[in-house]
Structure formats: C-alpha cells, structure tokens
C-alpha cells in the first residue's frame, strides 16, 4: 500500500504559476511510476503528466506540453507538478496517482490515488 497526499493547489490568475506536490508514504516510493490527472466539473478525469520509476521517462498531455513539468525526488518520496502559464481551462481538481508499472499514462493502470487538490485559474 502507498498513501498519497497532494498539496499546493489554490487560486491563481491566468498566466501565473503553481507547483503541486504529492507526498507518498508506505512502500518504497521508487517502486512506483507516478502520474497527475485532473477532473473539471462535468468532465471526465484526464491524464496530465506521468513520470517513470527512475524519472527516465516523462509524458504530457498535449494541452499542457511545454507549460507543465513533472518531476520526482525519490529521496523525499515526493512527486511534483510545476505548472506555468496557467489558463482558465486548467481549472480542475488535480490528483496524484501511483502505479506498479514502469510508466503509464492510462488512469486504469493506477492503483493508488490521492484525495485531490483544487486548482482554480481566473481570467
């Protein structure tokens, strides 16, 4: 089992930045690939970014490519999502998730989920 707790969400103006963090506890953090997903009101959950167990591979949704950066610090059991040039359409609850796979951008592969953190971008 691994427990995930997100932090860093909030209200920001368009063009601003936020950094989300996800702290993991439980089994060895480096055994899990990690991902960020988001869900806006009335919409399905969607993939945002993912990073492999050793950070050798990363992937992004087309909508955030070039603006968001995922990273991880296995010594601190933490994964981050740096979000720059935020847009109103980025408004959503952001979820951190973990999978025993080496890497995945498919939400059904993820076994462990945090409670989510709200990101609101005003225009």
Describe this structure in words.
- By secondary structure, this protein is mainly beta.
- Helices cover 0% and strands 51% of the residues.
- Strands 2, 4, 5, 6, 9, 10 and 11 form a 7-stranded mixed beta sheet that branches.
Helix tally equals 0
Order of helices and strands: EEEEEEEEEEE
Low-confidence runs of at least 5 consecutive residues: none
Largest sheet: 7 strands, mixed
User: Residue share in helices?
Assistant: under 10%
Radius of gyration: 13 Å
Task: Give a quick precis of the structure.
The protein has about 120 residues and is mostly beta strands. The protein has no helices and eleven strands. The radius of gyration is 13 Å and the shape is globular.
Features:
123 residues; mainly beta; seven-stranded mixed beta sheet; four-stranded antiparallel beta sheet; 51% strand
